[in-house]
Amino acid sequence: FHQTDVNGGMSATQLPAPTRDSQRQAAASQFQQRTHAAPVITQDTQRQAAAQRFNEAEHYGSYDDFRDFSRRQPLTQQQKDAARQRYQSASPEQRQAVREKMQTNPQIQQRREAARQRIQSASPEQRQAVREKMQTNPQKQQRREAARERIQSATPEQRQVFKEKVQQRPLNQQQRDNARQRIQSASPEQRQVFREKVQESRPQRLNDSNHTVRLNNEQRSAVRERLSERGARRLER
User: Fold this and answer.
1) Which whole-number Å values give the CA distances from 214 to 14, 164, 228, in the listed order?
2) pLDDT digits (tens, 9 = 90+) for 44-79
3) What whole-number distance in Å separates Cα of residue 233 and Cα of residue 237?
4) Which residue intervals are annotated with compositional bias (Low complexity) in the record (predicted)?
5) Backbone angles phi, psi at 17, to 5 degrees
6) How many Cβ atoms are within 10 Å of 179's Cβ, its own excluded?
7) Comparing C-alpha atoms, which of 129, 150, 133 is closest to residue 141?
8) What is the pLDDT of residues 82-110, one digit of tens each?
9) Distance CA 90, CA 23 (A)
10) Which SS3 state, helix, strand or coil, does residue 74 take?
11) Are 194 and 234 in contact (CB under 8 A)?
12) Quick one: DSSP state of residue 122?
């Protein structure tokens, strides 16, 4: 006989004898509660996880689309700093390979074309707002300040090497046509601002003229084209 909660206080019902399986299950449950052990991963749970990942990939269209979506997620500041350090510590050949890979990437070209169309279709007020936002960005200000310090601390030989690299880098016909279109579509006020910026930078160029070599006609035309393209980019900003 044993004590129960039934009416009358006593019952003649006798509990069955515990089996080894029930004892093992009870011991396993008590051990899991005491140690807070994680449940064992079975093949069913692995299959369910794989099916969930497949459904997510199907939801985004394909696995490549899902991977591209994950790549488009914003990077953290730590990831940006690590990428910047890797690029700065790379050799000139590695940097050139990265530039060529970026130029031939169809997705990057599509984004550039879309950004160029947005800039061309923007109003002067919108462009001015973008310029002010870029000027007040602390990260871009830090990068500009670091670039300015590197240029000022560079030796005349290093500046000459950089100028030669810039002159040797050819422009394709599409870049020249785009620069020409941006200059032609600029307003008189924008052209005047560009002329003033060029005139302000002329004294510095004259000071650096002692460290430069004489250029031939082909090199001068290449420099003019690069200056026009740079001015068009400034107008976009």
Assistant:
1) 111, 12, 21
2) 777 777 777 666 655 545 445 555 555 555 667 787
3) 6
4) 24-34
5) -70, 135
6) 20
7) 133
8) 877 887 788 888 888 887 887 787 887 88
9) 65
10) coil
11) yes
12) S
